[in-house]
Amino acid sequence: MADADQVLGRVLDVGCGTGEHALMAAARGLEATGVDTAPAAVRRARAKAVQRSLAARFEVWDALDLPALGLQFDSVLDCGLFHTFGDDQRAQFVAGLRAVVVPGGRYFMLCFSDKQPGDWGPRRVSQDELRHCFSDGWRIDVIEETVLEITLSPEGAHAWMAAFTRE
User: Fold this and answer.
1) In the chain, what is the greatest distance between 2 CA atoms, to the nearest angstrom?
2) What is the layout of strands, in order, in the sheet containing 101-112?
3) pTM of the entire predicted model
4) CB-based contact 122:89 (threshold 8 Å)
5) Which of 147, 80, 140 is nearest to 110 (CA)?
6) Who contacts 109 (Cβ-Cβ below 8 Å, separation ≥6)?
7) Residue 155: how many CA atoms within 13 Å on its side-chain side?
8) What are phi and psi of 7, to 5 degrees?
9) What is the pLDDT of residues 115-153, one digit of tens each?
10) At what angle do helices 39-51 and 20-27 cross, to 10 degrees?
């Protein structure tokens, strides 16, 4: 999703699932927090942190209420969360990101692309939608096509890999 050397400082893995990205950050010595709405996934992430002797914090949390965490972050990682939100939720999510990402901090995203054929899976996101969602208070660093590895298709799914810097 992002080159490891680009992920710096205090890290939030939003929609962390079982925590692999937060654990990757913690293994690099970064202060890492993961949030997800699935209690079972968060329990598994916490267990992995203990098994690997890594200091990472995991919370059952609604990604639409990030400011209530009371924390600030230098880097936010999102592997497959953004595309689950509807239009109104996307605006709320981006506003929450803006509140918790420090100026100069970065948000790294991997989401389903509108170039993916078919109607299975999450709603597709266009590059124009990404540009619109991050037009206020963010600099668009990169939006590029990639493939998201998924279990439903050996070819993967068309996706966008994007990075934004908080202004």
Assistant:
1) 42
2) 56-60, 32-36, 11-14, 73-79, 101-112, 157-166, 138-148
3) 0.95
4) no
5) 80
6) 1, 78, 82, 130, 160, 161, 162, 163, 164
7) 4
8) -90, 115
9) 988 887 888 999 999 999 999 999 999 999 999 888 778
10) 30
